[in-house]
Design goal:
Number of helices: 11
Distance between the termini: 32 Å
Number of strands: 8
Order of helices and strands: EHEHHEHHEHEHEHHEHEH
CATH class of the largest domain: Alpha Beta
Shape: globular
Largest sheet: 4 strands, parallel
Strand content: 15-25%
Number of domains: 2
Helix content: 40-55%
Strand order of the largest sheet: 2-1-3-4
């Protein structure tokens, strides 16, 4: 039986084509992933706020699979209404679902803190209005955002088409601060985390990497995964 050790329940935007594949590629033995989807085509503030309305139904459907935690797999969607909303909504979902409930933005904050990061460079695929919300969120969590660079992509399916090589070239000039954060669960990052860390000389945190790290931790899985950066060695 798949998931004989633990099962992760994942809710993602309907147009996300990356997160499931990256997480499956790195799951430890005996850990399985089970997915539900929330309608989203464009990554802008209005669409992200609307998507939140379908998150409870998506999460509830995963309880039938007897998952051991539920991961809200969307960075911008979990931070778009701010830090306090993310915390309050997570607590409400966890109380209702009776399993640990994790959002990607929470996972990113915990990952950055585990690396003692204070000053960040941030790279995203997003348009300016989403980048502004992201900067506000990160700074409300106690980080100084030294720079934030977005690719200006609004259609989520187009974000999923960005190659790791294109992302590497875009991100490799972002060496300000003591950590680089690459935001968005629809960006392919697992193939370039280690080489980016070597080339820019600072730790790299990505949305999918942090999401997997915190999900495993919350389920009591302490294995260190190879090839996914300093976070797994912290």
């Amino acid at each position: 039986m798949h998931g004989w050790r633990k099962r992760i329940g994942l809710i993602v935007p309907s147009s996300n084509t990356t997160m499931e594949c990256e997480l499956w590629s790195a799951l430890p033995q005996g850990i399985s992933l089970h997915t539900a989807r929330m309608p989203l085509k464009e990554v802008n503030a209005g669409a992200l706020e609307d998507m939140d309305g379908s998150s409870m139904n998506a999460a509830t459907s995963l309880i039938d699979a007897e998952v051991d935690c539920i991961l809200f797999g969307c960075t911008s969607g979990s931070l778009i209404k701010g830090k306090d909303y993310n915390t309050r909504r997570s607590e409400e979902m966890e109380k209702e679902l009776k399993v640990p409930f994790i959002t990607t933005s929470t996972a990113v904050v915990e990952a950055l803190k585990s690396l003692s990061a204070k000053e960040l460079s941030v790279v995203t695929p997003y348009i300016d209005e989403v980048n502004e919300r992201e900067k506000e969120f990160l700074e409300s969590c106690g980080f100084l955002v030294r720079s934030i660079m977005g690719m200006g992509i609004e259609k989520n399916k187009e974000i999923g088409k960005v190659t790791p090589q294109e992302l590497y070239r875009f991100a490799s000039d972002s060496g300000e601060g003591d950590c680089l954060f690459i935001s968005c669960t629809n960006l392919r990052t697992f193939e370039i985390i280690e080489v980016l860390e070597r080339d820019i000389g600072i730790p790299v945190v990505t949305s999918n990497q942090a999401s997997l790290w915190l999900s495993l931790n919350r389920m009591g899985i302490k294995e260190r995964l190879e090839g996914l950066g300093s976070l797994w060695r912290a």
